Amino acid sequence: MKRHVLITLLCASTVWVCATPRIQRVEPLCWWTDMQCPLTLMFQGEDLCDAQVTSQEVVGKRLQKGACTGLTVREQHNAESQNYLFVGIDVRKAGTYRFTLAKGRKKATFDYTVYPRNEQSRNRQSFNTSDVVYLIMSDRFVDGDESNNSTDCTAEKADKSNVHGRFGGDIQGIINSLDYIAETGATAIWPTPLLLDNESAWSYHGYACADYYHIDPRFGSNELYCQMVEAAHQRGIKVLMDMVPNHCGAAHWWMQDLPYRDWVNQFDTFTVTNNVFSANYDINASDFDRQLNNRGWFDHPMPDMNLDNPDLLQYFKQWAIWWIEYAGLDGLRVDTYPYIGAKAADWCKAITDEYPNLNIVGECWTRPASNVAYWQSGTKNFDGYDSHLPTVMDFPVEEAIRQALENDGSGWGAGMARVYDAMAMDYQYADVNRLLIFVGNHDMDRFADIVKDNDLRRVRIGFTLIATLRGIPQLFAGDEYGARSSDRALGHSTLRCPLLPKEQLTPEQRDLYDFHQRLFAFRKTEPILHHGRTMHFLARDNTYAYFRYTDEGAVFVFINASEEERTIPTAHYVEILSRYQSVGTDILSNTSIDLSRTDIRVPALSEMVVKLTK
Prior knowledge:
Layout: E1 22-27, E2 31-32, E3 39-46, E4 52-59, E5 62-63, E6 71-78, E7 84-91, E8 95-103, E9 106-115, E10 133-136, H1 171-176, H2 178-183, E11 188-191, E12 195-196, E13 211-215, H3 222-234, E14 238-243, H4 287-295, H5 310-327, E15 331-334, H6 343-354, E16 359-362, H7 369-373, E17 391-393, H8 395-405, H9 416-423, E18 435-437, H10 447-450, H11 456-468, E19 472-476, H12 507-524, H13 527-531, E20 533-539, E21 543-549, E22 553-560, E23 566-567, H14 574-577, E24 583-586, E25 591-594, E26 601-602, E27 606-613
Parallel strand pairs: 2-9, 10-11, 10-19, 11-14, 14-15, 15-16, 16-17, 17-18, 18-19
Antiparallel strand pairs: 1-3, 3-7, 4-5, 4-8, 6-7, 8-9, 12-13, 20-21, 21-22, 22-27, 23-26, 24-25, 24-27
Helix pairs in contact: 5-6, 8-9, 11-12
């Protein structure tokens, strides 16, 4: 896809000294022909209300005479602030167009570019069950360019001695690591937000956006972001953008002059969300609780956006579509989806209407499965609600795996019984293949920190589960070698640690990495694990057995999470084993296994993965 050079206003400072209409920003930054989403430009500057908007086509260095037919103004309307103007545009052909905003004899002009759309853009493919998503905490991953660690136009400077400060990870570091990421078996990357976060502290996490159309200069530039996407695609790696329509940052430029008072949800005093997702579907819930969940602020520096404002909703629709089109993205991850409110569904629908095959995964951090399933598109909810969100994060299975491995699994309903019970809830979901399955991410303690005795054998079991159960696996950078927090008492900042070069791994970490690489290399090329159905078996001895299967073959997985050697009860599996050859290949040891035997022993805290054929 052709890339376009954009003028970045991020580091510019302009002081207006008169009432003449002036244009400081026009968003989206550009547009394309043949888009389904209608285009509404937001002009921001000074004294723009009631300005009359006209357009002319620019040919070469000259304005074309006569009526402008390639781009026309459909409608315009003021905001509450006199410094904004919203202008609906009909686009008919590519070109450069000059907008004139006139108030009497006073005028301001702005040249705007419409590009021809790539013919294949609408039908782009996305991430799915054949993929493995690799989560990168962008600032903490790899510092590929030390020259941008601190910039004059951003508030917080790099300070690697401050565990809560910026470390300098950047887009160049991601580019430099793409071969390593591919080696892990990952086929898609999800970097945490790379857009400008200009808070004075804690800005490294990126979830308090200060400019929706510009990459934070400490990470790189818009152009470098596009280069990262292209470099990833050359290696067969897809790219997801982490988007946050629920809240912006207090340092966002529009917080000094909101277009409308209800652009963000406001209260007489600071009011935080109550985090009660269930109020959205609880038949006993009060409007008070529902509104507080959807309108309360996520945190002090994170104003809650009000997507009930139609101009803001349209702004966010165009923002998501713009980045997909501009950068050639393969999917989106949406932060804090259940906080947004009902209009989140309209936002998702606009994106999937524009890109019918695009996958969007939402963070719906709740349990049990019935609560998570409510947010997945296609679920037959009692209230008729459809989120239009194709994929949800599987927090119930994540919780079950972590609880199963954080102790010895003794007790009724403990250990692997938790995973069995969580998987038994699959009937709740509209599509189990559209679940993002994981054992850890950037917002929870490291997996190697919480398993009993920090035993990497238990980490291996967790890897085996997410590699072979249904859904789309998601890995967290560093977990592949059992990364641990430097000091859990200091909070999540210490788990968001820089990636270690392979030559710095301990022998035990290197063994885990090699296991991870073999396991996910097998998954990458095994369609049974991408599309197969599941049949599982539970024994009350902290083991768990299941088959992923199709008409052509099966993958048998046996997990022994106990601290004693176990014998596989193969006689229990006759109903499915009888469909396939009993002799298969253990893909972890590359040895032949005959599942007709009744004396197959599996060591404590280990796993077996066997490929079976017809």
